[in-house]
């Protein structure tokens, strides 16, 4: 039976549907003067071309099922059945739900193409299986397994907040819409008898602290351990990158120098300079575009580190991150091993204010020393001690010592079994800061002295 008018675009031969005024492919105007009794655009053809069939295929050529009418309402039971097992094969005479009415006529073509591609894959799998390299796919002639649209249960990640919605590739919950916690929001690590914990806290939107733990053997074979903690300066650009770069660079520097026999104090000094160079390099990264509408300054962070080995305890720092010494014998006095590079410390050192007055000032936490390209000349502070008994070194950022300022306060919140359970001790200290308010990122490392023997 012939058709009463054109069923394809005159420009590109695109199949048309009833009511189309423009071609969905080339955009050509389809509204033309119509003969009496005829519409401007005739109804679609009564057949859908097979894959590979030319537009002008003879009427005797095999034809597929007719395309669905986009104006036809699909019964609810058919919509509900979509996605169910076996729903990919439509029931005889049932129209499939078009994705877009303009391309409804292409669904038959797309289905045929998919079936042809699946048959080709199965044939290839059969050939590979015959050669001993089978993939477990069905051989030709077997019905292909239903396509699985949902990821397997063991790879389905649920929202960490509502525990019911799946996650989008961007890290948002499909149910509650919330962004998922970043990996750095809470970090814990234990190595060779030392441990560190870092937490975002309750007020900051990200964790700008970072830590690094290293273990090595000295030239005489005795063990040595290193814990490094860095606090990103929030007012700087990319402080989280600065803290990570500094801690990892210093860790690698000490891992290389101490086994060679470098004195720990010199090794710590060189490690601080290596950390400074790593942070400086972030400011010169040419891959980062400069935003002229936002104020940008160089990435910056503070630094504190402890190295234990050979009967010595070495501390290095720049900024206001601290190290405390807590003897195992709690009747002996604890001590703070660092002096802050801060406005408050300068006021006290110059006898301009008492410690209480300076700490109460809103400028108390303004740092006067840091690592970064816009810092003054970096002058690492390094000291070496030879403790007369066993103890624990607590290395931390101000997120912790804001809630345990003095050495006595730090000793009172450090668990007594910290030499044997350093991770548990670090967790307890972070919990103390969070329970106190958690106004800042909190990072702490617990390092027993002497260095634990390597198992």
Summarize the structure.
By secondary structure, the chain is an alpha+beta fold. The protein is built from 9 helices and 13 strands.
Structure explained in plain terms:
Helix 3 (239-257) runs antiparallel to helix 4. The chain is an alpha+beta fold. It contains 9 helices and 13 strands. It has helices at 76-81, 107-130, 239-257, 264-283, 343-349, 355-360, 398-401, 407-413, 422-435, and strands spanning 186-191, 194-199, 209-217, 223-231, 300-301, 303-309, 312-318, 322-327, 335-336, 371-372, 381-385, 391-396, 442-449. Strands 1-2-13-12-8-9 form a 6-stranded antiparallel sheet. A 5-stranded antiparallel sheet has the order 3-4-6-7-11, covered by helices on one side. The chain has a two-stranded antiparallel ribbon with strand order 5-10. Pfam families: PP2C_2 (PF13672). InterPro entries: PPM-type-like_dom_sf (IPR036457), PPM-type_phosphatase-like_dom (IPR001932). Residues 48-62, 81-98, 137-147 have a biased composition (Low complexity). This is Protein phosphatase.
Which SSEs are present, and which pair or pack?
Blueprint: H1 76-81, H2 107-130, E1 186-191, E2 194-199, E3 209-217, E4 223-231, H3 239-257, H4 264-283, E5 300-301, E6 303-309, E7 312-318, E8 322-327, E9 335-336, H5 343-349, H6 355-360, E10 371-372, E11 381-385, E12 391-396, H7 398-401, H8 407-413, H9 422-435, E13 442-449
Antiparallel strand pairs: 1-2, 2-13, 3-4, 4-6, 5-10, 6-7, 7-11, 8-9, 8-12, 12-13
Provide key terms for this protein.
alpha+beta, 455 residues, disordered N terminus, Phosphatase 2c, domain 1
